[in-house]
């Protein structure tokens, strides 16, 4: 059996109030997606390549669905098909020189890390268990009697396993989408471990946390810190969209929620762009979901600090929080400064959301934005200036304004939802925006995010 989902559909269709009733939809899907209770697997080896015959984890399920016509989840639009052809060509081993920077190598590394989620996280729980042995018997009795402290380790382990089942589903979908064979991944993992390479625990953890930010109801408070400014800005620039479709590019799109919200405004054709294989793998999983809140994740179970209650550490989030409609959204995977070089497309808007400070060479970002914008197009920015560990150029805000104005950008004022003016004589606004935190936590990560609209 291949890892591609095999669908044998017999449709009885009739139209009523713009609904399509799909009956007798027989599908082979991963039992990891369908089975809610995974308790029967508690003692299994969770490494994917040692799972034996994966036919065992599939089942045939008959499902009856009712879907709105305008909510159909289409990953088969002409744009999506064209982009997938380009991507698979780039991922081919014959494309370019093989090495650590080859996109297929990066993709396999990320799949390796997802497949090792449980194995990379359970040692932390075991370490806390061992350290707890230093506590006196008297104190242990008190802790267990009052807060059931020993059970906390078991609960953490159990939920890490649940997250691992999700990671398995994500890997399975990725193997199908990217047309990578199971044996190729197994060999890659074996070679990596033989070479002493350790799976990247942090990047997988961050992708799970980004689910909470982008695709759960819990993430509304964080999204509301930034999205209204951007959405109000783009609507003010293009108020009449009934007969037009404007092209929007979002580099550094992460798991893609902002792009979907822009598309939902109507009149926009959105291109998300992301370089991280970890984010892209998770995005490919999310974009295929046709059912709201179909999956659960426990994004904070790997951290033991800053919790108000024990339940906050073990908090369950359901996703996606909306019915996916990607008919006007595609993802282009790759480096923003290079992946569009051969494209003839010009965009009416480029939105940089928590992005420009990720640049190795900030000037290359500015040049790429300018080159991709159509004449009269707009650059909308929102985010901080938190430069990374090895940037070639680090500009202060006033320097960015001076440099980009010299490059031909003309700044226009943004809406009040973007906050107050940063400078009395400059058309730049600022507001506090949180990023990557739990609304229940005892700590908060926030910035005085800077926003502007610049016309090319």
TrEMBL record:
SUPFAM superfamilies: S-adenosyl-L-methionine-dependent methyltransferases. Residues 1-31 form the signal peptide. InterPro entries: CARME, SAM-dependent_MTases_sf. Pfam families: CARME (PF07942). Keywords: Signal. One of its GO terms (molecular function) is S-adenosylmethionine-dependent methyltransferase activity. PANTHER family: CARNOSINE N-METHYLTRANSFERASE, PTHR12303:SF13. This is Uncharacterized protein. It comes from Orbilia oligospora (Nematode-trapping fungus). The lineage of its organism: Eukaryota, Fungi, Dikarya, Ascomycota, Pezizomycotina.
